[in-house]
């Protein structure tokens, strides 16, 4: 006789039913992920780019702040006016002594700067196919930033307020070449500080609150429509080195 085979079922054995997603479920999930990505990735990229621009701007700010201190110390002076940073030749000497210069464009924007810049709102453009004025000299420094620096001069105020201008493209000729994004205008003062334009006649006590308010006013008046980013730097200072516009 043939051998009998018995199957014994254990009451302790647990049988599990394996489940899987259907093709339709997978496609729906991928579609949802695609829609969410399309909505969020551009915003994340923009935020990353803005942080990059601000980081580069802060680097230039720090380099100039340190250079101004060293310039005053090396000339045994109490301020930049006494140190002599008041002529075009002195500006060139200052830049070549305290920065590594990659390109010296003299009194021309090109080729240190891009051919054209536009405002954030797209209403205005600035062509760099012109020479600078008032002894302004332009350079590319080792960090890759393009810089134009004016000699320090007297602003027309009753206080004989001294200051100079720094035009900064934080990433050189690379895009987007938009004022307030990678292009900014900052001003430096005889004490070596770097700020927005200080409307000191409106501040009776020159308090931090008054300066902050003036930065905001200048931002609202100029930043969005300035191809060189005039008025934008002060807003970044007010917002603790964040580009929130």
Topology:
Layout: H1 23-74, H2 80-83, H3 88-98, E1 101-106, E2 116-118, E3 125-127, E4 137-141, E5 146-149, E6 153-154, E7 162-169, E8 183-189, E9 194-195, H4 208-222, H5 232-238
Antiparallel strand pairs: 1-4, 2-3, 4-5, 5-7, 6-7, 7-8, 8-9
Explain this structure.
The chain is α+β, with helices and mostly antiparallel strands. The protein has one domain. It contains five helices and nine strands; from the N terminus they run H-H-H-E-E-E-E-E-E-E-E-E-H-H. Strands 1, 4, 5, 6, 7, 8 and 9 form a seven-stranded antiparallel beta sheet that branches. It has a two-stranded antiparallel sheet with strand order 2-3. Strand 4 and strand 5 form a beta hairpin.
Tell me the helix content. Answer: 25-40%
Number of domains: 1
Mean pLDDT across all amino acids? 87
Task: Note the main sheet.
Answer: 7 strands, antiparallel
- Rounded Rg: 29 Å
Task: Give me the secondary-structure category.
Answer: alpha+beta
Q: How much β-strand is present in the residues?
A: 15-25%
- Element order: H for helix, E for strand: HHHEEEEEEEEEHH
Number of helices: 5
Uncertain runs: none
Give the CA-based shape.
Answer: elongated
Distance between the termini: 92 Å
The strand count comes to: 9
């Amino acid at each position: 006789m043939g051998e009998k085979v018995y199957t014994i079922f254990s009451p302790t054995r647990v049988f599990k039913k394996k489940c899987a997603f259907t093709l339709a479920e997978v496609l729906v999930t991928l579609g949802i992920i695609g829609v969410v990505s399309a909505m969020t990735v551009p915003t994340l990229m923009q935020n990353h780019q803005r942080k990059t621009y601000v980081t580069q701007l802060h680097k230039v700010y720090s380099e100039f702040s340190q250079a101004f201190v060293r310039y005053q110390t090396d000339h045994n002076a109490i301020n930049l006016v006494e140190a002599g940073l008041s002529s075009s030749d002195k500006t060139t000497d200052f830049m070549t002594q305290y920065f590594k210069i990659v390109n010296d464009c003299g009194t021309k924007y090109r080729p240190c700067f891009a051919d054209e810049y536009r405002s954030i709102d797209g209403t205005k453009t600035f062509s760099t196919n012109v020479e600078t004025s008032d002894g302004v000299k332009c350079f590319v420094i080792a960090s890759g930033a393009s810089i134009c620096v004016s000699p320090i001069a007297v602003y027309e105020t009753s206080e004989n307020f001294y200051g100079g201008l720094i035009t900064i493209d934080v990433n050189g000729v690379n895009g987007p070449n938009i004022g307030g994004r990678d292009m900014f205008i900052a001003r430096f003062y005889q004490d070596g500080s770097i700020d927005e334009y200080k409307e000191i006649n409106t501040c009776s006590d020159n308090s931090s609150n008054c300066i902050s308010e003036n930065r905001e006013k200048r931002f609202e008046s100029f930043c969005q429509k300035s191809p060189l980013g005039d008025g934008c730097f002060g807003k970044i200072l007010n917002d603790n080195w964040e580009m929130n516009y």
